[in-house]
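Thread title: Can someone regenerate the structure for this chain?

I was given the following input by a collaborator and told the matching structure tokens would be attached. They weren't. Posting the sequence so someone can regenerate them.
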Amino acid sequence: MKRKSLLAIVLMLSTIVFANDWDVQEFPYEQYVYYIVTDAPETYKNLIGTMVFAWQGRSSYRNAYESSCKDGIIEFLKKEDFNIGINPDTKKDSAFLSEGFMEKYFPELVNVNIPVTQADLDFIWEKLSSKYAGFSDMKKKGFNKKQFYKINNTKDLKTLLDKYIEDCHFQLNVREFSYNQNTAYDEGSKRSKDPANIYFEKETSNSYYVRFTGCGVENDLYNKNLQQVALKAVKKDFIILDSRSNHGGSDFPQILLRRDLNKLKYKGTVIVLQDNWSFSSGESWHIFGVDGLRFKCLLVGTHSGGMQNYGNCQLYNDEKLNVGIYFGYSNFRKDLPSNYLGDGKGYEPDIWATTETMASVLTGLGVDVSGIIFQ
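Best answer:
Regenerated them for you:
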């Protein structure tokens, strides 16, 4: 009887230990398969019932795969090598795996080499030469029309773009070929678990903490409230702007906050937090790392992603050719702080910290982080 009871307890404990782990279900779709999350750890329960996507590039993704890859998807989910984003069809949170997934499991899709036609080149050249903010910088490096029109496949196209473009916003799709440049990555760093487009504030004895994971129109509280932080926090020793894993949008609220802090003659220190997944306007140091500020600034974290050279992006499509190109019409290179290392390299922090060490690092700087959770 005791042995049966002991066995029951062991089974119960094993159920608890192995419960709430990642699991996905595979569904056929024509000649492909796709995946739905069927179980997840407590932190990610909101993903149960949603799809798993994989990035092919910065602005394209897929949820139908060439062959079964269930074990690989679970591997990436367990490593937390994914981002939580909104499925544009269902408007629900979904898991977006890192680009490393496609490179590992479908390298033939990532490194595809297909013919490029005269019509393809005409479309790409016309958009680059007339719309792209980085075109003049490409020409300064030696880029010219004659060499461009010698291209006859996507392998040569990639080689040419790698030579003349330094722009992690830039995205080009020629049918099944996808081109983009990798952002910064520091070994051992992990993306924040906080969902996209959250905004909240927290006051402690000597600091005012602001967490925002998006700067777009979707983050309504960021756009409405960030500027007002200046009045709320002007007497605090520290203002912490936490833009870790922030994929960008509009930096206008940050500009207004900086302006008001200057007007109020703020005497404390603004601490900007970032990580490898802080992109574009989410790389807040480009606002708070400039000259002429009346207050001190400190950059804490890892390298930012590095998407700052050009911005205000638009997508240009030719549906008949099945060619799309995405890039910015504004050039910011000359206005960036001196410690910007370049696209794909980002801003180097003044003080190194990961999410796991952030609380202890800030405490060591004299910041009261009581009640603030970094995840």
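Residues 160 and 274 are 32 Å apart (CA to CA).
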